[in-house]
Structure formats: structure tokens, C-alpha cells
């Protein structure tokens, strides 16, 4: 939840600072920065993010708990907004293949800040040995059989242009769940036009195929590269396209 620009807390007559922080945090929750069910950063990190004291953050969290926007258990505070997200994920969901794993499938995802996998750095114009935001996705069937794995690396351009992605950098430790299913929506909302190219290859000696997706923007700047490996005998990759009406 990195703060890329300083928060400006305009004075509102008669409104305490902690209530203004509660309003700002609620706006971030509704915007999908922290999806329903995901754990919030700790009080210290929230205080740094909003530029206020931990006591102010503590009071703001108490307001959101009272209003039913947060739930707290022994693991910490979690977003508990009612209803679906503000926006529906686009049919070209992130990462490629994440929404077609089949009934009964179990999936999880994490993010880390690390040196990109081989081939990713060159594709994204990342200098050798420089770290980047890396997203990993796993999917398995109900009986525990691996179905899909996907590794995505985001470019420096993506983090600079898309505030929601940049916020993951400070909590990309590989331990918590990562909800980046709206990454493409975030990119579009940041004013980027997405162009993607998917390459599908068989993996010799195995029943699996490798799908490599490269995404760039309207200025030909690389945004992300994803490598998906799936068992072609046990699984099927479905593509959906929307064709605009003639004008």
C-alpha cells in the first residue's frame, strides 16, 4: 500500500481527522485496492500511507468496523464490503487463464518483489538483476492435481502509471493473498490502451502447453509478460472476444 503522492487532508469544519481518514480508506476499499476478504496492512503502514499518527488510524478503523466495512479476527482486519466489486472484471481476465479453471478448482495467488524470471527482464526492458513486481498464480483440481501455473512480471512503466499496482510493492512479500484480477481494468482506468499477443507452444515430452502473453500500451511500452503452463489433456483454455458493433 505504497503512497506514491502525499495525501492532502483538506480541513472540513467540525470533522475530526480520523473521520476523514476513514472516508479516504473506505474509498480505497470500494475502489478495489483491497478486495473483500483481504487483510489490511498494519496500523504502522497505514499511518505512513496516509501521513497521520497510528492513533488516528486506530480511530478510523474503529469507525469502519462499527459501520460494518471491516471485520476483525485474530489474523487482523479484513475488508468486508457488501455486494460485488465496483467494476466487473473484463472478459480478458488477469492473469491469462485465471478464470477458466473449471468446477471445483482451487486457486491462489501471491506477489513478490524480486529479480524477474529468465526472459522476463529482457521482454520488459528491465536492467539485469533489478527487481520487479512478480505475480504467481496456481490452480489445482478438487482432488489436488495441478492444472495451471502462471508467472507474471510487471514493468516499471506499469507500476509508474497504475497506482493500484504500485501499492502492492510494499506488501509483496509472497506470504499474503494477491487480488490482481482487475489489473487490466486498473490499466485501462489509468488511460492505457492494452494490446496483447498470446503465443501457445507444446512443451516437449509432456502433455502440457505454455501460453506466453505479452501486453503493451498505445506507446508500445511493455506492461507485463505472463507465462502460463497448463495440462492440455486435463484442462482447456477458453478465449472470449467482444467485437464492437459496426457504426
TrEMBL record:
SUPFAM superfamilies: Winged helix' DNA-binding domain (SSF46785). One of its GO terms (biological process) is negative regulation of DNA-templated transcription. CDD domains: WHTH_GntR (cd07377). Residues 15-82 form the HTH gntR-type domain. PROSITE patterns: HTH_GNTR. InterPro entries: Bact_HTH_transcr_reg, Tscrpt_reg_HTH_GntR, WH-like_DNA-bd_sf, WH_DNA-bd_sf. Pfam families: GntR. One of its GO terms (molecular function) is DNA-binding transcription factor activity. The keyword Transcription applies. Keywords: DNA-binding, Transcription, Transcription regulation. This is GntR family transcriptional regulator.
